[in-house]
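Figure 6 in text form: structure in, sequence out.
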């Protein structure tokens, strides 16, 4: 009885998918990239405020960490291109 109730609640959720696994994974990774970019930008701004307060070591580390977090998709795309795996699921744009 509980299984059919669970299945009835799950069917409308599954109806929202794009139809293929790559499309769903691409949308999910796009959301993760957006959240990472926002978080990385907040880290860079926080590092600037830390330097302004006088804590230069923590500020520099925060800025470097924020740049790595915000630029992670581009870094991964560059590694994929360098190793010849150009068909990634999420396309972050043209990388030459």
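Output sequence:
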């Amino acid at each position: 009885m509980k299984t059919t109730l669970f299945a009835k609640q799950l069917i409308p959720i599954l109806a929202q998918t794009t139809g293929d696994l790559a499309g769903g994974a691409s949308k999910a990774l796009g959301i993760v990239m957006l959240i990472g970019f926002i978080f990385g930008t907040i880290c860079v701004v926080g590092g600037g405020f830390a330097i302004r307060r006088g804590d230069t070591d923590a500020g520099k580390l925060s800025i470097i960490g924020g740049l790595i977090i915000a630029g992670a998709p581009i870094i991964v795309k560059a590694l994929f291109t360098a190793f010849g795996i150009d068909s990634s699921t999420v396309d972050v744009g043209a990388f030459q």
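Caption detail: The mean pLDDT is 77.
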